[in-house]
């Protein structure tokens, strides 16, 4: 089976803690602060790599954690920046944040990168906190925590050619005949449930990739019968082989089928409906006369489409069809895609903080800014604590807590810290 979805967990590195230290020099009684900054935590970055073909490896490895930045040292030595963690993914991988379902990246070119978890900033050493009023600050910042999230990866099938058509018209039979792929073929609808890729080999070492997708039905553009999933798979193919059952073996009318499927394509995406189509008139072995085929040929003539009468069972007509498709591929010119280059990644925008009550009555303050502040403060140090209190006042947390009805002695929780409320 062709696996094209995966879930992974990514976590960037925490920033290194800043250092608090002072110069010790002979004959200099009071050396100035010289604690260096912590290093940058490692980013987690997805990289499109054309040597990776499937998402199958992510079945066995799901957790990806980048390293933390090094701690700052005395003598203004900076901590080491951690290396980024690079995760190779197939070209064509679409990345979403699982929780919010927002699109983070669409990696469509070899080498294209997307940062999916930003490494934490290194904490500043005490050297940074000198002021004219305080020449000997003892506090330093801790490193900023990293980010973590679950991602959904989805691989759009990158085939050159897509097989399109109603169920049971013979799409899988064609792929079986022209490639080494072995999709199931049977006389009932929806035999194929997942897209399958096959490599079509032609003489002189020419080859292309063809995708067999499950049959489309009416309403596919609205998502009926997993239509969206399947249409998405053929969105990036260069050429479509539209397979029609010309024998009318199931009471189908090929012209009606053709129009309906194109109606679905047009409803789904304009780009998809403009894609070049070659018509494969299948099951000619079942024709008692050629009226149906003639009618189809005339209809397609008027619309400038080429018709290839074939029998997927015996293989009749397939070499000609494949050669023709090859010619079209050779002259194919890629439509510029505006969204291709763009890597969409925005750090989350959230309100400064939110307050809610836990079951035990404690007031819990959440929010990226306040949580970062707590994580980066060293509460064992007096000056750090005072700085925290200043920022706390600045954010008007007191006011908000009082509005929520906080009383002297109530418990307040932020991130990993818990304290008793005092006015
Ligand atoms: N007589 C005849 N039967 C064919 C031909 N091509 C396919 N069939 C039969 O038609 C039925 C459906 O063929 P599939 O290849 O499974 O059709 P499909 O389009 O892949 O169908 P789904 O996967 O259900 O969408 C099978 O019973 C095939 O044997 C043909 O050229 N002649
Ligand atoms: Mg099939």
From TrEMBL:
Residues 345-423 form the OCT domain. Residues 1-158 form the Obg domain. It is found in: Cytoplasm. Gene3D superfamilies: GTP-binding protein OBG, C-terminal domain (3.30.300.350), GTP1/OBG domain (2.70.210.12), P-loop containing nucleotide triphosphate hydrolases (3.40.50.300). InterPro entries: G_OBG (IPR031167), GTP-bd (IPR006073), GTP-bd_Obg/CgtA (IPR014100), GTP-bd_prot_GTP1/OBG_C_sf (IPR036346), GTP1-OBG_CS (IPR006074), GTP1_OBG_dom (IPR006169), GTP1_OBG_dom_sf (IPR036726), OBG_GTPase (IPR045086). It comes from the Bacteria. Its main location: cytoplasm. Residues 159-330 form the OBG-type G domain. Its cofactor is Mg(2+). Mg(2+) binds at residues 172, 192. GTP binds at residues 165-172, 190-194, 212-215, 282-285, 311-313. Coiled coil: none annotated. Keywords: Cytoplasm, GTP-binding, Hydrolase, Magnesium, Metal-binding, Nucleotide-binding. Its EC number is 3.6.5.-. Monomer. Belongs to the TRAFAC class OBG-HflX-like GTPase superfamily. OBG GTPase family. An essential GTPase which binds GTP, GDP and possibly (p)ppGpp with moderate affinity, with high nucleotide exchange rates and a fairly low GTP hydrolysis rate. Plays a role in control of the cell cycle, stress response, ribosome biogenesis and in those bacteria that undergo differentiation, in morphogenesis control. This is GTPase Obg. It comes from Megasphaera hexanoica. The gene is obgE.
């Amino acid at each position: 089976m062709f696996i094209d979805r995966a879930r992974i967990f990514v976590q960037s590195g925490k920033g290194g803690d800043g250092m608090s230290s002072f110069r010790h020099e002979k004959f200099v009684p009071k050396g100035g602060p010289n604690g260096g900054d912590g290093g940058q935590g490692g980013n987690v970055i997805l990289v499109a790599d054309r040597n990776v073909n499937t998402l199958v490896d992510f079945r066995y490895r799901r957790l990806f954690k980048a390293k933390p930045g090094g701690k700052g040292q005395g003598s203004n030595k900076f901590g080491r920046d951690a290396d980024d963690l690079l995760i190779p993914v197939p070209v064509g991988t679409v990345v979403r944040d699982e929780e919010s379902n927002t699109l983070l990246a669409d990696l469509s070119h070899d080498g294209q990168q997307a940062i999916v978890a930003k490494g934490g900033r290194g904490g500043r050493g005490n050297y940074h906190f000198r002021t004219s009023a305080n020449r000997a600050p003892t506090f330093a910042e801790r490193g900023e925590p990293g980010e973590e999230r679950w991602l959904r990866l989805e691989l759009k099938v990158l085939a050159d050619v897509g097989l399109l058509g109603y169920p049971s018209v013979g799409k899988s039979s064609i792929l079986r005949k022209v490639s080494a792929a072995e999709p199931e073929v049977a006389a009932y609808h929806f035999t194929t449930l997942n897209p399958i890729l096959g490599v079509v080999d032609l003489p002189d070492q020419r080859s292309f990739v063809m995708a067999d997708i499950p049959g489309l039905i009416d309403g596919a553009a609205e998502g009926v019968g997993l239509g969206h999933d399947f249409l998405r798979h053929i969105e990036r193919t260069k050429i479509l082989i539209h397979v029609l059952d010309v024998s009318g073996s199931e009471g189908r009318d090929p012209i009606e089928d053709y129009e309906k499927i194109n109606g679905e394509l047009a409803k789904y995406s304009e780009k998809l409906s403009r894609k070049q189509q070659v018509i494969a008139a299948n099951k000619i072995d079942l024709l008692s006369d050629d009226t149906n085929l003639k009618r189809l040929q005339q209809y397609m003539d008027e619309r400038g489409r080429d018709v290839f009468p074939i029998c997927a069972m015996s293989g009749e007509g397939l070499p000609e069809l494949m050669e023709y498709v090859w010619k079209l591929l050779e002259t194919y010119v890629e439509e510029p895609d505006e969204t291709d280059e763009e890597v969409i990644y925005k750090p989350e925008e959230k309100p400064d903080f939110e307050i809610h009550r836990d079951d035990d009555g404690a007031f819990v303050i959440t929010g990226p800014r306040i949580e970062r502040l707590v994580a980066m403060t060293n509460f064992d140090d007096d000056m750090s604590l005072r700085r925290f209190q200043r920022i706390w006042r600045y954010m008007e947390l007191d006011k908000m807590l009082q509005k929520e009805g906080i009383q002297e002695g109530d418990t307040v929780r932020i991130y990993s810290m818990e304290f008793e409320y005092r006015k």
